[in-house]
Amino acid sequence: MENVSFTNMLTGNGIQTTISGSLEIRDSAEIKNEFLLLLANHDHVELHFKNIDKIDLTALQLLMALSRSASDHGKKVHYIFEPTAYISEVLNNSGFNKFISV
C-alpha cells in the first residue's frame, strides 16, 4: 500500500474517518489539509487508523497538533489505532504512547 488514503463516513455526532497506508513526511501536507478540513466542518472527529504500513514522527506530531487545535476550538478528536505490534512499537519508541494508546 502506498501513500495515505482517507475514507469518511458521517455519524450522528460528527464524522468517522478511516486512514490507511503510509503516514510519512512526504504525505504531511495532504494529512494536514485533510485534518484541517475535518476539524473545520465537524465538532467531533473520530480517526480510525487501519492497515498502516508506516508512520513517522511528522505524522504523530500532526496528530498532537490536531488535538490541540480541536481543544482550542471546543471540538473533540478521538484516535483509534488498529492494534498491531508495529504501531505499538512506534508509539512506545517515540514516547507518543503517553498521549495515544492502542
Give a verbal description of the structure:
There is one protein chain. This protein is an alpha/beta fold. The protein has a single domain (4-98), classed as STAS domain (Transcription Regulator spoIIAA, 2-Layer Sandwich). Helix content is 39%, strand content 35%. It starts with a strand and ends in an 8-residue tail after the last helix. The relative contact order is 0.18. The mean pLDDT is 91. Residues 19-102 form the STAS domain. This is STAS domain-containing protein. It comes from Mucilaginibacter ginsenosidivorax.
Overall, the morphology is globular
CATH topology: Transcription Regulator spoIIAA
Residues in β-strands, percent: 35-45%
What is the strand tally? Answer: 4
Count of helical regions: 3
Largest sheet, described in full?
4 strands, mixed
CATH 4th-level superfamily = STAS domain
CA distance, first residue to last residue: 21 Å
State the domain count.
1
CATH class: Alpha Beta
Order of helices and strands: EEHEHEH
CATH architecture level-2 label: 2-Layer Sandwich
Pfam family, one: STAS_2
Domain STAS: 19-102
Protein name: STAS domain-containing protein
